[in-house]
Amino acid sequence: TPGLRQRAERGEVLFGTVDSFLTWRLTGGRQHVTDYSNASRTLMYNIHTLDWDDELLRLLDVPRAMLPRVLDSSGMFGETDPQWFGRGIPITGIAGDQQAATFGQACFDQGDAKNTYGTGCFLLMNTGEVPVPSQNNLVTTIGWGLNGRVTYCLEGSVFVAGAVVQWLRDGLGVIRESAEVERLAAQVTDSDGVYIVPAFVGLGAPHWDPYARGAIFGLTRGTTAAHLARAAVESMAFQSRDLLEAMQKDAGVPLAVLKVDGGATVNNELLQFQADIVNAPVERPQVSETTALGAAYLAGLAVGYWTDTEEVARNWRLDRRFEPAMEEAERESRYTRWRKAVERSLHWEER
Fold this sequence. Notes:
Layout: H1 4-9, H2 18-26, E1 33-35, H3 36-39, E2 45-46, E3 51-52, H4 54-60, E4 69-71, E5 74-79, H5 82-85, E6 90-93, H6 97-104, E7 113-117, E8 121-128, E9 139-146, E10 149-158, H7 163-172, H8 180-185, E11 195-197, E12 215-217, H9 225-251, E13 258-261, H10 268-278, E14 282-285, H11 290-303, H12 309-315, E15 318-322, H13 328-345
């Protein structure tokens, strides 16, 4: 478009994340803002200096004038235009999806971790007020900004978690409804040596191999639908342990407890095996929609509905705690075979 570049350099054409666009629209075009957590995922923001990075902007040829102001995740971002709700309503909380979930799980101390089980898995660990550069293929990100102080996290993303259950239903016809997988998996005490590596679209963290492909190992004439269901469920927990192994190496902090949320956490078989395979308690909260809860907490803190994070943490309520019950030798034997299965799935496709 002729003249578009010049308009961008004058700040007449704007660029931002989804929250920036929503805020801009809700405020009637008066506020072009975002928060630290969203800015940190644009590949243009310096998470150390807390400013847009001039070197990256030059590399990507993006004019600074078109980018939003970056603010704390909890604070006054603006007021909605009266055309939307009849009066101005303060916008006081903005955060990225998984960062908001981490806040909603009250992971406020260094070493606190949460795992969200949806189509994929997203595991974040609070690393405190100093960013920890990952040496194990994780993402170093900003968790949130609060009262002028920034909290950093390590994040690992798994591409296929709950989606493997959808594949059992839609691809193989092993189950008719996703909820059936827990009942079917519970019919056997283990997978009888069957391992499913659900690398349908490659493998995410910590492997980052787009050429990996899904595979099933250990099939025998004795393998049943129940064993396949259990192997599918266990694959979610194994991939989560892969992430935790990398995180603990990077952060140097042992895992005390893993908080969990997301649709798949209704599956008790999954959560018990997760506790077993990481050898740490797994806690499921009463409120599973922790992303929305975290955004609400950030907004409420800004207007004084909650006083501080200590009060927020007291609101966290336990639904069920899963304690590890597997013997060490069995746990490590199973995980070793999982790693062997993953190794054989890597680099399957030609580059």
